[in-house]
């Protein structure tokens, strides 16, 4: 018995697989090859669409949807948070809610971790093949009306220090691949923290949560969170949970390097950083974050152009075969 042996999946279902073969330093390719083998064994038809460049999945999903039979076919995404993000973003541009199956094969896989997807992709595939009803998954929409910046987030949108970390990581691509190959995902991020700290800048933030406005100065990070994780399993906001009809804003205020190390130690061990005077958390359904100057900004681990954003966030959802 290998988890694929029941006959309950629909034989007519054809799978459209969108895959980033490079995700997780080659894990994507391994998962695709195994899935290919399994689907062939089960005589389940599929088409494979490989992403060929950054952001390709945004347009690819639109082509897939235009060509698929919406009654019988299913979408399967194989890759990391970035690839899933792009698929959901591409779909939200079409304003269509077509369910997707997802096999995490990335470096961080924070979204999969947050919603407890199986770590074994064999189990994940078996679940998807047998899923009868798609499940609703919360995500968020962000918009800066003036800058005409709009998008979707599954994990987090962070401004300031965490944007800087992603910027540094993007410039150290090789190092990131080496570390992820030896499964040190958290180290990849922690490794860049000292570097980002040296180059940090602090800023002022105006935050509105369900119509209540507060201001903060000397801010290091201001972010919107859909669930607890950042950077490959770093539980930065332990009080956030997915699918609670709520989003959180997390503010980390400026602190000395020794205090940053103390805060990080708590993040990685007890989670007691939430009681620190440097950490603030607010939660609600509609959020706004307005920064006082352009700061590095990331959404789901991908950089946005550095601008002085005034973002409005609201809850949204997509459908997942799980
Ligand atoms: N063929 C390709 N060549 C270069 N970049 C690609 C290619 N296909 C996808 N990408 C880009 O690679 C980035 C990362 O992809 P993905 O999230 O799937 O993997 P990961 O970074 O290993 O995982 P995670 O985001 O979970 O850490 C995304 O921005 C995506 O657009």
From TrEMBL:
Q: Name one GO biological process term.
A: phospholipid biosynthetic process
Sample GO molecular function, one term: ATP binding
Entry-linked SUPFAM superfamilies: NAD kinase/diacylglycerol kinase-like
Q: Does the keyword Lyase apply?
A: no
Cross-referenced Pfam families: DAGK_cat (PF00781), YegS_C (PF19279)
Q: Which residues form the DAGKc domain?
A: 10-146
Name this polypeptide is given: YegS/Rv2252/BmrU family lipid kinase
**PANTHER family for the chain:** SPHINGOSINE KINASE, SPHINGOSINE KINASE RELATED PROTEIN
Keyword Disulfide bond part of the UniProt annotation? no
